[in-house]
Predict the structure.
Amino acid sequence: MLIQFPLDSNILYLPLVYLLPPDLIVRCPTLNALPRCLSEVSASESMMDLLTGDAFLSEIMDASASLAFPHFGFGGWKEHYTGYSPVWRLSYALPLWAQLIEEETGWGVQALFRMKPGTQIPFADPEYIQALFSKVVKRAIEEQGWQSLLDVVREMPCDEDFEPWQTNVRIDFQRKWYHTRSKNVQTVSLEELIEEDEDGSIFYIPDATQNVETYVIAKDFAERFLATLSDKDRQIVKLRQDGYSYVEVADKLGYKNHSGVIKRIEAVKKKLKEYKGKE
């Protein structure tokens, strides 16, 4: 028998709750309070109140968006972006995620209500859930025609897209933005390369119109240090100067993944400290 619910009923999203990994659902107090048995939910007036409340809808929207966002191909996490970001908004397509997951797996509200009364629903394998969301997001991008929008967002990000704190994705955006658009920011950008270095500002190149002497000294020092590096390390530095992310540098230079780039940057940091000690 087919059970019908209003299109705006929260119960349509209950199956998604039972797909959430343990480390995610514990951060959602309303969802975490729901028993993992439909019989227990339906027998409790307080649980039914939770299911129909705004907190349930808010938490399942946030949780599903957190699972979907990483598969759009943008850096960082959903929490690093604001509601102005088109990708952030697309990740909140809750009805679409529920529909596609049911189509892909058969797991939806109908399957939930066909379960034997008293059945306890186990947690799904987190890796399976990650692979499932990867599949449905890719399918949504293709079927909804989102790819052209995502290409534009990737090519032309805005400062309003990012939360104000200094996340890696916001720092990468700022570097690319200032490198391509500001006539006043001049940098040899080892400052950017060694952001974790306690003396990372050593390679900031001041505006020559403000202090020519300081500019020349800093630029000369950076150029002499770069001359001590291998060709590959200089390529990495140059690409980072140009605002490329670790992943993009790895792609351009033929590394299997960005961890190789990070290892080379750590080596450059070490050489930098040694070189500074000799000056």
Observations:
- The longest strand covers residues 186-187.
- The CA atoms of residues 211 and 276 lie 22 Å apart.
